């Protein structure tokens, strides 16, 4: 599972987290400011663009919190208490423990003893971490699918391909496509190398590279 996570994605933006978890940007930023849940990769100056970047583990933890809030009606006040308790117990992350919900109260299973701490008499619901991980993996795979409005477009992102110009929705630099063209490859041959590309993508990349060359 770890290898699958590592190969799926390295970093997630606020927009990604919103789509994966169903939480709002306002919630994410408020939780970051309060210290309730800080992004794994973050600048000290949060006013900068892309200053909040989340890891896969962050996504799993935030998805778990979202499920606790929305499906089990756990209050924010209680979640804050749980976060402090987990920290005191030595857990660095929400995704590191199995969580249980009993009458809108969160409990956790200590990995060394398998004891569920704080459990009262009665029925309980278990929030299995593995199910949350699978859920997040599925949502991340959907994020990686290109949208129709990305076809034939070029963009640049600080955390994609070292801020190189790329074909929108991919990690394929326009400079790479230019090198293939310079080497004598035609559009069909380039698509054989990069099946995610379309003819419009290739033409947009070539046009972009020519524009860059003229402005140099």
Give a short account of the largest sheet.
4 strands, antiparallel
- Beta fraction of the residues? 5-15%
Q: From N to C, what is the helix and strand string?
A: HHHEEHHEEEEHEEHHH
Number of domains: 2
Estimated helix fraction: 40-55%
Main-sheet strand order equals 5-4-3-6
CATH architecture of the largest domain: Orthogonal Bundle
Rg result? 22 Å
- Give the uncertain stretches in residue-range form: 1-8
SS content category: alpha+beta
From the N-terminal CA to the C-terminal CA, the straight-line distance is 46 Å
Give me the number of helical elements: 9
Number of strands: 8
What's the CATH topology label of the largest domain?
Multidrug-efflux Transporter Regulator, Chain: A, Domain 2
> Which class of the largest domain in CATH terms?
Mainly Alpha
Return the average pLDDT rounded to an integer: 83
Structure description:
- This protein is α+β, with helices and mostly antiparallel strands.
- It folds into two domains: 2-143, Multidrug-efflux Transporter Regulator, Chain: A, Domain 2, CATH 1.10.1660; 148-215, Orthogonal Bundle (Arc Repressor Mutant, subunit A), CATH 1.10.10.10.
- Helices cover 47% and strands 12% of the residues.
- It has a four-stranded antiparallel sheet. It has a two-stranded antiparallel ribbon with strand order 1-2.
- α4 crosses α6 (129-143).
- Residues 1-8 have low confidence and may be disordered.
């Amino acid at each position: 599972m770890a290898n699958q996570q590592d190969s799926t994605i390295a970093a997630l933006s606020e927009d990604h987290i919103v789509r994966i978890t169903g939480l709002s940007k306002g919630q994410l930023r408020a939780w970051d400011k309060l210290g309730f849940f800080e992004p794994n990769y973050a600048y000290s100056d949060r006013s900068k663009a892309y200053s909040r970047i989340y890891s896969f583990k962050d996504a799993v933890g935030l998805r778990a919190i979202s499920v606790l809030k929305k499906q089990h009606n756990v209050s924010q006040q209680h979640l804050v208490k749980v976060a402090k308790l987990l920290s005191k117990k030595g857990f660095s992350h929400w995704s590191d423990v199995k969580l249980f919900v009993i009458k809108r109260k969160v409990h956790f299973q200590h990995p060394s003893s398998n004891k569920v701490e704080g459990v009262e008499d009665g029925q309980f619901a278990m929030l299995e971490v593995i199910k949350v991980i699978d859920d997040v993996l599925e949502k991340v795979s959907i994020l990686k699918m290109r949208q129709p409005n990305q076809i034939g477009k070029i963009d640049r992102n600080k955390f994609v391909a070292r801020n190189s110009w790329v074909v929108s929705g991919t990690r394929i630099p326009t400079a790479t496509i230019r090198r293939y063209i310079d080497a004598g490859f035609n559009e069909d041959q380039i698509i054989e190398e990069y099946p995610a590309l379309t003819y419009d993508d290739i033409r947009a990349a070539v046009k972009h590279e020519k524009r860059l060359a003229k402005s140099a």
